[in-house]
């Protein structure tokens, strides 16, 4: 990728640097670009083989030596992005971190080493970003449909898209490292074992093969290290140039089986770094060819990191993918837009009054705004406990543009916007976000209370002051006494607010 046009709303100016980091199951990557004459020009790329997936055990633990290898790599990458503003850096972690029993135990030191937050993204969000990277590296025709397959170390993402828009996204728990470990852990490459493994991996693809083949595509593209490695082998064996064919893949597989053992693999064009995991990659790609009926797949240089870089440009702007997702959720669940706007407006008014005292930033404001618009999402399921239903949907859905931490932040605010606040509401929030999440939840609670009557009215001179964990809400006495239900709600609120670790005092002027 040489240049990318910044999206409208981007805060980048000429000379600014932006960086995207991909913490994959096999390798960690970083790409740094600079805005020059309105375009992004890549100025640096770094890659290190970390093999996170190799260190995972069945219980979600991570081998100490792999953990240290990952942290050392992040410390080096951190030096490269140390002078780039936080808003211009985004790091994403994929399948191996998703599989950890206690991700925070790894993420805390990892973020300290890197010096930037790390977003854990779902498999389908990873698929969306991969597609963006391919679409902007190789711009498609407007109506052209593409199948994109990304075989990583621990998972495989399959996407069908039209133009720059993903239409279907799937993520499978098969990858080059995971499949090599699972099927060939003793190093032997036998024909019988290969066929049994192939049948098992094919079952994974068959889960979505029918709708994918029904939708169809005009071309197939493969991304990331596995496709590049197999493409290099095919080129060296004169089986294709820039693409992988069904016949070429079959010949590569035969050469693997002839080797008999992984350490004896001798394929032209194959690097020593890729040799220990190539068998699993070839196996997964052969299964994809068989089940999806592929005859040929082009190899792209783009991957997740390019998608993250491009996506980063739109975050905070008019076409932020998170804003599009919030609008889609409101429509899907029939959210009362007028009430959502009332609550949002008041929540943001309160936010602006205490942001400086509480050290809240623009990202906190944006998350509070989204939570306000979505706080009644659960009403589409049932009125009783609708805040619980809404929180569940937000935490467990695949929501484009959001990291897993971001979805949990939203879910915690929605879960705690009414009734008592359970300790479990914030259990999954990372420590670095916990304090601000609790404070944003308090602001949402007050905004919801003030609009319980579902009217466009606010007390004159509404004021909120914050001093540490103490909040003081000032209301007009006459206005409040004319609303006995609201007065009763506010009298009970200080006790509920203790669940957020805050002391609320109501002052009447």
UniProtKB/TrEMBL annotation:
<comment type="similarity">
    <text>Belongs to the GppA/Ppx family.</text>
</comment>
<protein>
    <recommendedName>
        <fullName>Exopolyphosphatase</fullName>
        <ecNumber>3.6.1.11</ecNumber>
    </recommendedName>
</protein>
<dbReference type="GO" id="GO:0005886">
    <property type="term" value="C:plasma membrane"/>
</dbReference>
<dbReference type="InterPro" id="IPR048950">
    <property type="entry name" value="Ppx_GppA_C"/>
</dbReference>
<feature type="domain" description="Ppx/GppA phosphatase N-terminal">
    <location>
        <begin position="31"/>
        <end position="314"/>
    </location>
</feature>
<keyword id="KW-0378">Hydrolase</keyword>
<keyword id="KW-0472">Membrane</keyword>
<dbReference type="Pfam" id="PF21447">
    <property type="entry name" value="Ppx-GppA_III"/>
</dbReference>
<dbReference type="Pfam" id="PF02541">
    <property type="entry name" value="Ppx-GppA"/>
</dbReference>
<dbReference type="InterPro" id="IPR043129">
    <property type="entry name" value="ATPase_NBD"/>
</dbReference>
<feature type="domain" description="Ppx/GppA phosphatase C-terminal">
    <location>
        <begin position="322"/>
        <end position="493"/>
    </location>
</feature>
<comment type="subunit">
    <text>Homodimer.</text>
</comment>
<dbReference type="GO" id="GO:0006798">
    <property type="term" value="P:polyphosphate catabolic process"/>
</dbReference>
<dbReference type="InterPro" id="IPR003695">
    <property type="entry name" value="Ppx_GppA_N"/>
</dbReference>
<dbReference type="InterPro" id="IPR022371">
    <property type="entry name" value="Exopolyphosphatase"/>
</dbReference>
<keyword id="KW-1003">Cell membrane</keyword>
<dbReference type="InterPro" id="IPR030673">
    <property type="entry name" value="PyroPPase_GppA_Ppx"/>
</dbReference>
<dbReference type="InterPro" id="IPR050273">
    <property type="entry name" value="GppA/Ppx_hydrolase"/>
</dbReference>
<dbReference type="GO" id="GO:0004309">
    <property type="term" value="F:exopolyphosphatase activity"/>
</dbReference>
